[in-house]
Amino acid sequence: MEAEPELHVVVLTGAGDRAFSAGADIDHMRTASALQARSYAQRGHQATARLESFPRPVIAAVNGYALGGGCELALACDLRLASEDARFGLPEVNLGILPGWGGTQRLARTTSSGFAKELIFTGRMCSAEEALRQGLVNQVTTAAGLMDRALELADEIAAKPAWSIATAKEVVNLALDGDLRGHLARELDAFALAFTTADQREGMDAFIEKRPARFVGH
Fold first, then answer.
1. How far apart are CA 23 and CA 69, in angstroms?
2. Number of Cβ within a 10 Å radius of residue 77
3. Does domain 10-142+162-209 have CATH number 3.40.1190.20?
4. Cα gap 44→139, rounded to integer Å
5. Which of 92, 118, 202, 209 is catalytic?
6. Deepest of 76, 85, 164, 212, by most Cβ within 10 A of its Cβ?
7. pTM, to two decimals
8. Which listed residue (6, 52, 72, 152) is catalytic?
9. Angle CA(86)–CA(149)–CA(84) in degrees, nearest 5?
10. Active site residue 92
11. Do the Cβ atoms of 95 and 32 come closer than 8 Å?
């Protein structure tokens, strides 16, 4: 796709109107080893890094739920539009783990460390309006108008000189970089380590069994 001369802007959205992406298959993940968890997180890091470094602007049109890895994919996009019924969250702590696809870094950089910690520590969801206030999304639209607005914005950007836009994206990303790669490596280690704990298994078992988790702290 990077080599397509006619490609100026990418719009990423979910199938249907219920979810942008509701996250991972917990039933599959709950028996994963630390090595398997690390491999899973590495694939997420590769996907989000490709979005972030893609030489064209990427717009996330978030319809419905954007949870866990879905929220992290949206955070790796350049711009985020949300339908008024969209919901965002990084609920991994409810499963005894933590975000593993870059959410610990990109949410704090996109919003604030305080909001990122609140959302990650509580595992709660936030509404589209709260996401707008916190800077997590750029615009909120009606559900019916989401794709029209995303395509309108894409057309507006596509009318600008492609080299200038691609270079501006690269340079703006440098302002946010800091030691992002080093911090992401620490997140990757922590995500894998979570899969050696009793709380990871308890959290995911409780989710599948639809009961409150009984965490023990290790």
1. 5
2. 22
3. no
4. 25
5. 92
6. 76
7. 0.88
8. 72
9. 20
10. yes
11. no
2 belongs to the catalytic site: no
- Angle, helix 103-110 to helix 180-194, in steps of 10 degrees: 130
**What is the CB neighbour count within 10 angstroms for residue 65?**
21
Among the listed residues 107, 11, 101, 6, the one whose alpha carbon sits nearest the alpha carbon of residue 57: 11
HEC readout, the chain = CCCCCCCCCEEEECCCCCEEECCCCHHHHCCCCHHHHHHHHHHHHHHHHHHHHCCCCEEEEECCEEECHHHHHHHHCCEEEEECCCEEECHHHHHCCCCCCCHHHHHHHHCCHHHHHHHHHHCCEEEHHHHHHHCCCCEEECCCCHHHHHHHHHHHHHCCCHHHHHHHHHHHHHHHHCCHHHHHHHHHHHHHHHCCCHHHHHHHHHHHHCCCCCCCCC
- The angle, 0 to 180 degrees and rounded to 10, between the axes of the packed helices 34-53 and 180-194 is 150
Pairwise CA distance, residues 126 & 74, whole Å: 14
pLDDT digits (tens, 9 = 90+) for 4-34: 668 999 999 998 777 888 777 888 888 999 9
The single residue listed with the structure tokens 């704090």 is 108
Q: Which residues contact 170 (CB under 8 A, 6 or more apart)?
A: 55
pLDDT per residue as tens digits for the range 46-70 = 999 999 999 999 999 999 999 999 9
- What span, in angstroms and rounded, lies between the C-alpha atoms of 51 and 57? 9
Q: How far apart are CA 85 and CA 141, in angstroms?
A: 9
